[in-house]
Amino acid sequence: MCPLSLDALSDRYAVERELGRGGMGAVYLARDLKLDRPVALKVLPPEFVQDTSLRERFLRETRTAASFSHPNIVPVHGIEEREGLVAFAMGYVEGESLTERVRRQGPLDVRSVVRMLQDVGYALAYAHGRGVVHRDVKPDNIMIERATGRALLMDFGIARAIETPVAGQGLTRVGEVVGTPEYMSPEQAAGDQLDGRTDLYSLGLAALFAISGTAAMAGTSAQQVLAKQLTELPPSAAVLRPDLPPKLCAVIDRCVAKSPDDRFASAEALVDAVDAAQAAAPEIPLPIRMFAHDAETLTFIMFFMLVFGWMFGSIVVSGGNMDIGLAILVMLVVGVARIGASFGAGRRLARIGFTSDDVLAGLRAIVGERNAMRAQLRADADTVRRRRRVVRWSIADLAVSALLIVVAFQGRVKTGPFHYTLSGRAATTFIVAAAMLGLGVFGLLRSPLRATVAERLFQRLWLGPLGRFFIRRAVRERGAAPSSRAPSMPGMGAALPAPPVPAQASHAATTAEQRLLELERRLAALEKRGG
User: Fold this and answer.
1) 151-190: burial string, b at 16+ Cβ within 10 Å, e else
2) In sequence order, what are the beta bridge partners of 151?
3) Is-above-0.70 flag for pTM?
4) What SS3 class is residue 130?
5) Is 235 exposed, middle or buried (0-12, 13-18, 19+ CB in 10 A)?
6) What stretch of H or E contains 79?
């Protein structure tokens, strides 16, 4: 049901739910009935509509954002003014804000931080190139698209032109402080003249939040936070996250330098620095990830093959039950066949252009990803607190299960030498105790903050001498069909080679290009005729 304040828009928009509220209004998810698409409706609070300055600032946000067309800026579709209500419709991003992402899953990994810095950097470069400073870059105003991971900048509600303001014109006067204190630059907190470098400072603080999960410049009051922005240095990124690449830490630390002259000269320079740092981890091709998953499964199979082999040998030596020995032999044959299948997977990797060094590098990169994720979780205070709670509950489960086992044993009935039976109540107690024992052991052993037993076995086996020998034998180039290899990714071997293009598809592409060129020539002729 639509909120009462939005009834005037019911002929154009069907409001579904509220998405959030901020200082400049509430945002609702709605459907544009004429264009049949989801939009985000931002509505100025009714009590502010009569305030001329606030109303003008809200409308200026609409005009500023509506003039932008950039893949990393949330677009504005239209504005509505009717019956004392002011609202505008902007693109709905299927995802969540940077604040929500960090609160939901903890601090971001290296790749996500780099992607966020690049995407928002591109958006700021676009806005600064058109003479506009955002002045409110913060995690709440950075949206992360769920499907692609793309970051989009939104809410130009307090943006202003970079040019020096003239007294009496515009909403913002020299000396006026507008923005979010926790992400405000020193010059903005002091009410000084601003340029694009103030947004870089705010973006650096947003990056510190992304890697740590907490605001780097926090306080008990706005005045205290503003004083910190003017006098204190934010903590170094390397101190907050020692696992981050040093070059990425240097980029973030330069963004939050107190003096604008010590920051990057422009958002383009920031993006170039992130690119030059090559801070993002290398892409791991999908076939190598699939081989790694296959190798993890094979680790367990080889472990059980050792156990079954020992059992089969014991049966043969001692002359035991050969029916059981036959079943174990079948399991051993299945295990050998499974190893052969993994050899076949290695052969396929070689045929499409990968080498054994590529596979080993991919396995090391996967291990590095997992270690980085655990380091990221260890830096998240909420995750550490939850883990401590799990440990406490697991210890309590073990204690209670031990007590229940003792109680259950009291209900034993001796039926012969070393033979006992349990009453119904005792059996139920024992089953509950066994379940609690299993949960307690699992809770203690399975920790998101350290590698599991399976992961340690995987590393020792596949990155050790035996695993390297297996991979080099499986992924060997001798006899592999020749293929053109695509350029390697940074820090990785070959990527997937491009598949061959059929002759018909090539002809169709050529025809399409010819039609496009002909259309461009016609458009050029029309423009000349119109001029």
Assistant:
1) bbbbbbbbbbebeebeeeeeebeeeeebbbbbbbbbbbbe
2) 144
3) no
4) coil
5) middle
6) strand 76-82
The β-bridge relationship of strands 160-161 and 132-133 is antiparallel
Looking at the predicted structure, is the pLDDT value of residue 150 above 80? yes
How far is 92 from 145, CA to CA, in rounded Å? 10
- Assigned token pair, 44: 């100025």
102-114: pLDDT as tens digits: 988 888 888 899 9
At 498-512, the pLDDT tens digits run: 444 444 444 444 455
Which comes out higher in pLDDT, residue 514 or 424? 424
pLDDT digits (tens, 9 = 90+) for 311-350: 888 888 887 777 788 888 888 888 888 888 888 888 888 8
**36 catalytic per annotation:** no
- Is 95-166+173-277 the same fold as 4-91? no
Choosing from 119, 136, 380, 397, which is the catalytic residue? Answer: 136
Q: pLDDT tens digit string along 176-222?
A: 445 688 999 999 988 888 899 999 999 999 999 999 999 999 888 88
DSSP three-state, residue 420: strand
Helix (H, G, I), strand (E, B) or coil at 32: strand
Closest alpha carbon to 401 in 456, 371, 442: 442
Residues 6+ apart with CB under 8 A from 529: none
- How far is the C-alpha of 283 from the C-alpha of 146, rounded, in Å? 19
Q: What one-character-per-residue DSSP string does 426-454 give?
A: HHHHHHHHHHHHHHHHHHHH--TTS--HH
Q: Give 95-166+173-277's CATH code, choosing from 1.20.1250.20, 1.10.443.10, 3.90.226.10, 1.10.510.10.
A: 1.10.510.10
Give the residue among 301, 361, 356 at the shortest CA–CA distance from 473.
356
Q: What is the pLDDT of residue 173?
A: 34
**Could you tell me if 156 and 109 are in contact, meaning their C-beta atoms sit under 8 angstroms apart?**
no
Whether domain 4-91 has CATH 3.20.20.70 = no
Domain ranges for the chain, please list them. Answer: 4-91, 95-166+173-277, 286-474
Burial class (CB in 10 A: 0-12, 13-18, 19+), 128: buried
Q: Name the pLDDT band for 278 (thresholds 50, 70, 90).
A: low
How much of the chain exceeds pLDDT 90, in percent? 27
- CA–CA dist 58, 250 (Å, integer): 37
d(CA 14, CA 39): 10
DSSP 278: T
Separation of alpha carbons 103 and 99, rounded Å? 6
Mapped onto helix, strand or coil, the DSSP state of residue 28 is: strand
